[in-house]
Design brief:
mainly alpha
Length: about 290
């Protein structure tokens, strides 16, 4: 027989359970207020790293520290999403430009252009679904009304998801893959891996998943031209590091993204351990564009 689902608990019961397991809660009213805004299941997910046995947490662990780690994680996700959006626009621009000049505005609709026709068919279904979801967007509606729904590649990529960008790039001719990858000073195998990892991280962020002390299921393939830092942490740093290669504006990268990561780490340095996000001690020097 399947075990019974646990009954719902009140905020007071949740606090009592946390205290019973050794979590220090000095201000119960504040803890309750936080739990009304933050799902207990989310909060308890950050406690797994502090468990000693099944139902006990390490000594001197406070509710405030755990909550600060959650806030750090949330703000890091927001910052990384900004970087991902910048990368997404760059990838779409370079892919659509290369493809349009090789196969014309509507070449992406022609399965003969691609390596695998079956994969192209699957991609077209995804694209049609995206068209249907976005048909009320002004630029999509314009092309439906004026051009019978035919979007040139530079318009079509605007409604590509990052997953679609990955599958599209994976299926275009090798010659085009190499030309696009060269713009990032790497090879097609590496660029495909980087797109996959960026997509993976984007999905994690979109679903508010924990980054702090989360072991990645995959990590970007290294590139002999770009990878000066050779270590692999299987933490989010591995993906942040390759973002450096995909964002071309050094001022935006150094002065906004790296600078804000530094400020965030300094603000929460008493509560977070940078090793839990894979950051080395000299992470700022490692990340900064020269």
């Amino acid at each position: 027989m399947m075990p019974m689902i646990k009954p719902a608990t009140t905020y007071e019961q949740q606090i009592e359970l946390l205290e019973k397991r050794g979590l220090i809660i000095t201000d119960k009213s504040r803890a309750k207020e936080m739990l009304t805004r933050l799902n207990y299941y989310t909060f308890s997910g950050y406690l797994h790293d502090f468990k000693v046995g099944e139902c006990k947490y390490v000594d001197n662990l406070s509710f405030e520290r755990v909550y600060n780690i959650i806030e750090f994680d949330r703000r890091l996700r927001n910052l990384l999403m900004y970087a991902i959006e910048t990368i997404e626009h760059t990838l779409k621009t370079k892919i659509s430009y290369n493809f349009a000049h090789s196969f014309g505005p509507l070449g992406y609709l022609n399965s003969d252009v691609f390596k695998d026709k079956k994969e192209h068919d699957i991609f077209i279904e995804k694209f049609k679904n995206s068209m249907n979801k976005n048909k009320k967007l002004p630029f999509v509606k314009h092309h439906i009304d004026k051009y019978g729904g035919k979007l040139p590649i530079w318009v079509a990529t605007e409604i590509f998801t990052m997953g679609m960008v990955y599958y599209f790039y994976n299926n275009i001719p090798t010659k085009n893959q190499k030309a696009i990858a060269a713009e990032f000073n790497t090879g097609p195998r590496q660029l495909l891996s980087w797109i996959e990892n960026i997509t993976y991280l984007r999905n994690m962020i979109a679903h508010y998943m924990r980054l702090y002390n989360f072991k990645l299921q995959k990590t970007p393939i290294k590139c002999k031209y770009n990878h000066k830092y050779k270590e692999t942490s299987y933490r989010v740093f591995d993906i942040i590091y390759i973002m450096n290669f995909l964002i071309f504006d050094s001022k935006e990268w150094n002065n906004y993204i790296v600078s804000n990561i530094k400020s965030l780490i300094l603000e929460y340095e008493e509560d977070v351990n940078i090793k839990c996000i894979g950051f080395p001690e000299d992470w700022e020097k490692t990340l900064k564009k020269v």
